[in-house]
Design goal:
The protein is α+β, with helices and mostly antiparallel strands. The chain has helices at about 10-45, 60-90, 195-205, 210-220, 225-230, 265-270, 295-305; strands at about 95-105, 105-110, 115-120, 120-125, 130-135, 140-145, 150-155, 160-165, 170-175, 185-195, 250, 260. About 35% of the residues lie in helices and about 20% in strands. α6 (about 265-270) crosses α7. The relative contact order is 0.12. Mean pLDDT is about 85; it is low at about 230-235.
Length: about 325
């Protein structure tokens, strides 16, 4: 019987080392405290005959050394953990994006090629994977114990999480945030495949058009180009910021701040455009909250990401 989880992602060993270091140091401090307690209980027992009267000298040097040493050790653990957290929260530029939508009580997964899954996630081994996640209803939490990763999935927001699987196999996926009566049934599996097998799976589960193509159809359907598109000779009538080359660029706002046009910004610009108004434009865009589902918003965001000055809407 296996008593430990497999270390199935590149980050798993370091996470385990950090936890073991924290446990070992905490156990050492606890052992020292109990040892001193036991020592003084025995040494200064009622029948010992030792004088327990006035203290002859102060012990501030010992107390300062003890406090400083424990502070330094635990601060070192904090720095280690903060560094690991930052590295796990910033996906590599070449990471493969996969979109995850949580809903009571299932995980809906969409790949760039249009492949869809329910309560399953197929990924290639040895490739950085970035999960772009949101919820359609309440707060959920995606956890893959074998990868040592977990992250809250929030409604009306995009959260991201990344990993790189190191071993082919099938691993459990859980929701670890109580989200309703059937919370315990909100489980799934992560299937890690070798690159040729993953390519074969993508081909066998291909959809009619990828996310980009489906997003373009929605862009046309909702008439987004009427304000955001630019046709020759109509530049003076544009009432909204152009989208070509927007993704990844800094955006100046009316309050004087700058934001980066990432997935979160694009999502919020669709469902809550009044939050961050672009400098030089009037806040006239209506909110599409409740009119466009999270799955369709993902498709629109995916399409907007592909737009460039050479390829406008």
């Amino acid at each position: 019987m296996r008593l430990s989880l497999p270390q199935a992602a590149d980050s798993a060993p370091e996470v385990d080392h950090l936890l073991w270091a924290l446990l070992a140091i905490s156990a050492a401090v606890l052992a020292l405290v109990f040892f001193l307690l036991f020592l003084y209980v025995v040494r200064y027992r009622a029948t010992s005959g030792l004088d327990r009267g006035e203290v002859n000298e102060k012990t501030w040097r010992l107390e300062a050394a003890w406090t400083g040493a424990t502070l330094a050790v635990f601060f070192g653990l904090f720095v280690w953990g903060a560094d690991l957290y930052l590295r796990l929260s910033q996906a590599p530029p070449d990471a493969l994006k996969i979109y995850v939508i949580a809903k009571q009580w299932m995980w809906k997964v969409e790949h760039d090629g249009g492949q869809r899954e329910i309560n399953a996630l197929h990924v290639p081994v040895g490739t950085p994977i970035e999960l772009v996640m949101t919820s359609e209803d309440v707060i959920h939490d995606l956890s893959i114990p074998a990868f040592r990763i977990k992250h809250d999935v929030l409604p009306d927001r995009y959260e991201s999480l990344w990993f790189k699987a190191r071993e082919p196999g099938t691993y459990h996926l859980f929701c670890t945030q109580f989200c309703g009566l059937d919370h315990s049934r909100m489980t799934g599996e992560v299937v890690v495949l070798k690159p040729p097998e993953y390519a074969r799976w993508l081909a066998q589960n291909g959809a009619a058009g990828g996310l980009e193509e489906q997003g373009r159809a929605l862009f046309v359907h909702f008439g987004c180009g009427g304000c955001h598109g630019v046709t020759p000779g109509t530049e003076s009538t544009v009432r909204a910021p152009p989208l070509a080359g927007l993704y990844g660029s800094p955006v100046p706002l009316t309050d004087g701040t700058l934001v980066r046009a990432d997935e979160r910004y694009l999502h919020d610009s669709i469902v809550a455009p009044e939050r961050e108004v672009v400098a030089g434009y009037a806040p006239i865009m209506p909110s599409y909250a409740g009119q466009i589902g999270e799955e369709d918003i993902l498709k629109l965001v995916s399409y907007i990401e592909t737009l460039s000055p050479e390829r406008p809407p």
